[in-house]
């Protein structure tokens, strides 16, 4: 496993995070097994959100984690709030943030969160209210560090005007197929491709400039998490290069796809979503791979991009 010292945040955090969005698919024993497998592979960081299975993911994790015997202080547990599917709103009001935090802690059966993220932008958000809620959560010891997800630089700047605690993470979609975070820099000022459009306000450079660690969600998915591109006949060129490099490094194609994210000098975390212990073991082999510049670009180009 590779580990990252998050600036102003968790130290020695595993570069591969176990995302728990799909945990409601598991029964209690399977959940215990995948958490134990993750920990034995060196994963010490677990990602949740209030909306994953309407809280079911956190409940399943809380019960299963207690049975694993893993000491609480050996892992980082993160969750997110702000998406309320049943109410059909995004809500960053002080009351919603504080209520969510208490509910999360109760479902996860823990006294504190190592990181607490705002999941998606509430279009009616008032940064003063967020700041008040974060102050209460921080001073009470319920939350140790804060961050955001799917947020653009100016939204983060607006929050930072009021929020006292550092915002240490931005969790955004990034995979070899969904590489828009990276593309726009390459095609700037190029009218021949839609990839030139800035869809996130230069978030990647902003995060690097401001010591915000990017967490890449759905690292193996194409589209809006529609399915995996690995071994998918719709991605022949990409799979050919993934296969070739997998042979070179004696790892799986999924490990190469994750290694492509970890190779980026922004020192990102990749949030893996598999609930299959064999798949997770294969993915963690990504940490044995250090792609050369040529190999990194070969993968990027095989995923449908071009050098202008
Ligand atoms: N912040 C946000 O807005 C946001 C949005 C979405 C997700 N997330 C976070 O990101 C995490 C990961 O998302 P994700 O689950 O879409 O990511 P992913 O790791 O790209 O995809 C995992 C899915 O791919 C399947 N899969 C098929 N073949 C596989 C193989 N060979 N190796 C590994 N997986 C394979 C897995 O099934 P098996 O279980 O059968 O392997 C699972 O259903 C979530 O758990 C959540 O924590 C955040």
What does the model show?
The protein is α/β, with parallel strands linked by helices and 308 residues long. The chain has one domain: TIM Barrel (Alpha-Beta Barrel). Helix content is 39%, strand content 16%. It is built from 11 helices and 14 strands. The chain has helices spanning 28-40, 56-68, 94-108, 127-139, 153-162, 180-186, 203-209, 236-249, 253-262, 277-284, 293-302; strands spanning 3-4, 13-14, 16-19, 45-47, 76-81, 83-84, 89-90, 115-118, 146-149, 167-173, 213-217, 221-222, 227-228, 269-272. The strands form 4 sheets. It has an 8-stranded parallel beta barrel with strand order 3-4-5-8-9-10-11-14, surrounded by 4 helices. Helix 3 (94-108) packs parallel to helix 4 and helix 8 (236-249) crosses helix 9 (253-262). The mean pLDDT is 97. Bound molecules: NADP nicotinamide-adenine-dinucleotide phosphate (NAP). Residues 19-22, 47, 119, 149-150, 171, 217-221, 225, 228, 230, 254, 271-276, 279 line the site of NADP nicotinamide-adenine-dinucleotide phosphate (NAP).
């Amino acid at each position: 496993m590779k580990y990252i010292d998050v600036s102003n945040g968790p130290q020695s955090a595993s570069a591969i995070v176990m995302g728990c969005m799909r945990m409601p698919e598991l029964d209690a024993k399977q959940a215990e097994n995948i958490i134990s497998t993750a920990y034995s592979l060196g994963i010490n960081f677990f990602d949740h959100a209030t909306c994953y299975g309407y809280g079911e993911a956190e409940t399943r994790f809380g019960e299963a984690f207690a049975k694993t015997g893993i000491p609480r202080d050996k892992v980082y547990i993160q969750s997110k709030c702000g998406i309320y599917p049943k109410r059909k709103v995004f809500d960053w009001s002080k009351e919603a943030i504080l209520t969510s935090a208490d509910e999360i802690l109760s479902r996860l059966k823990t006294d504190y969160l190592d990181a607490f993220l705002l999941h998606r932008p509430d279009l009616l958000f008032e940064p003063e209210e967020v700041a008040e809620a974060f102050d209460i959560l921080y001073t009470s010891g319920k939350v140790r560090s804060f961050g955001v997800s799917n947020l653009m630089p100016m939204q983060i700047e607006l929050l930072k005007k009021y929020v006292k605690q550092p915002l240490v993470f931005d969790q955004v979609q990034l995979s070899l197929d969904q590489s828009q975070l990276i593309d726009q820099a390459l095609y700037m000022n190029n009218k021949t491709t839609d990839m030139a459009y800035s869809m996130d306000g230069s978030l990647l450079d902003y995060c690097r400039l401001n010591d915000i660690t990017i967490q890449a969600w759905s690292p193996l998915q194409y589209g809006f998490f529609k399915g995996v591109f690995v071994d998918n006949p719709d991605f022949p060129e990409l799979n050919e290069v993934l296969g070739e490099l997998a042979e070179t490094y004696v790892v799986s194609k999924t490990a190469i796809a994750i290694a492509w994210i970890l190779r980026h000098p922004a020192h990102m975390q990749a949030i893996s979503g598999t609930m299959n212990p064999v798949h997770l073991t294969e993915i963690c082999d990504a940490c044995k791979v250090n792609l050369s510049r040529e190999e990194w670009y070969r993968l990027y180009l095989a995923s449908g991009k071009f050098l202008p």
